[in-house]
Amino acid sequence: MLPPDELMTESFLPSMRQLAAQRLRKEGLSQNRVASLLGITQASVSLYLESGPKKAYSTLESFSVSHKQADDYASSLTGAVKRSSSEGVGMLYSIWTDLLGRGNACGPHRVLYPSLADCDMCIKEFGGGGGTRAEAIREVAQAVKILEGSVNFVQVMPEVSVNIACVAGGAESPADVVAIPGRIVKVKGRAKAMLPPEAGASAHMARVLLLVKGSRSDIRACVNLRFDRRMGEAVKKLGLRTMRLKNYPDTGDDPTIGALERSLKSSPGRFDALVDEGGSGIEPNLYLFSDSAGGAAEEALEVADAYSAV
Questions:
Q1: Phi-psi category of 75—alpha, beta or left, where left has phi over 0 and alpha has psi -120 to 50?
Q2: Domain for residue 121, yes or no?
Q3: Which domain holds residue 100?
């Protein structure tokens, strides 16, 4: 049996203790008092304070926990331990089981145990039911099989590779959007996913999807393909309505996102696909949108067939 308990004790718990120790110390508590509240030695507190928060933040990022979320968790935890030890334990496990239910521990757990590639027990056990990450993960996994089974699909894969993203429930942040870590790449003339789907795996695809979903509530998934003259003809042949991004300045960490934000504000009309014409260091891409991951995959194959016929 390979439960995620060791992830809790060896990675998550030390990281939370470190952030909590630093917060409590900033509040003016002595190292001995901090040690007593957290149930560790004064020497451990001293080490936590000396090393700084960088390692803790980095470890928590592997669980798709942002710096802000980590600070919020630490704030909740320090408040709880100051009230009582039992409240501290309750708060810690509340945070941990929430992460398990959201699928945030799946990635680190699969790194430890690759045999758990198809496991979703924590999501089933601690998740919130329909519309959760478990559903989105299953959708993306099935969509990947559709793409991997196609002979033609590899023709429309861009050099930056492919990803397919799906919104989990009422996702509001990229950490709640399921995608493929490492993307879908070309292997021996076929598409092949590098790893099983998980939440928070692609910040770029998640941001594109969430922005479009803000204008189209029926949209839940997207997939990216190559874009060139031939693709333009295939899209036109299929009668797909497109929104084009072009001539945008290379500003910010993801200029495509900035261009999309501006385009949605200036021309929020209905469209089936997004054409990113690219720019300096940015490969042109076509983004297809659908109400499900499977729908996005099927649409991608339809486009691939049309591309082959051009």
A1: alpha
A2: no
A3: 5-112
CATH number, domain with residue 292: 3.40.225.10
* pTM exceeding the 0.90 threshold for the entire prediction: no
Cα separation, 248 vs 175, whole angstroms:
27
Compute the distance between CA of residue 238 and CA of residue 73 in angstroms, rounded to an integer: 49
Task: Give a yes or no: residue 124 inside a domain.
Answer: no
**Same domain, yes or no: 154 and 255:** yes
Let me know whether 224 and 299 are in one domain: yes
Q: Outline where the chain has alpha helix (H).
A: 5-7, 13-26, 31-38, 42-51, 54-61, 67-83, 85-102, 106-112, 121-126, 133-148, 203-215, 229-238, 255-266, 293-309
Considering the domain architecture, whether residues 135 and 256 belong to the same structural domain is answered as yes
Range picked from 113-127, 180-194, 235-249 for highest mean pLDDT: 180-194
Contact 53, 108 (CB under 8 A): no
Q: What does the CA dihedral 198, 202, 205, 211 come to, rounded to 10 degrees?
A: 90
Residue 164's SS3 state is: strand
| Contact criterion met (CB below 8 Å) for 302 and 233 | no
pLDDT reported for residue 107: 87
Calpha distance 232→276 (Å, rounded):
12
Residue pLDDT, tens place only, 276-290? 988 777 899 999 999
CB 307 within 8 A of CB 156: yes
User: Tell me, what DSSP letter sits at residue 282?
Assistant: B
Mean pLDDT of the chain: 89
Residues 80 and 220 in one domain: no
Give a yes or no: residue 267 inside a domain. yes
CA distances to 200, 223, 303 from 216, in Å? 21, 16, 21
Co-location of 230 and 175 in the same domain: yes
User: Tens of pLDDT along 150-188?
Assistant: 999 999 999 999 999 999 777 678 888 999 998 999 999
112, 147, 170: which is the final residue of a domain? 112
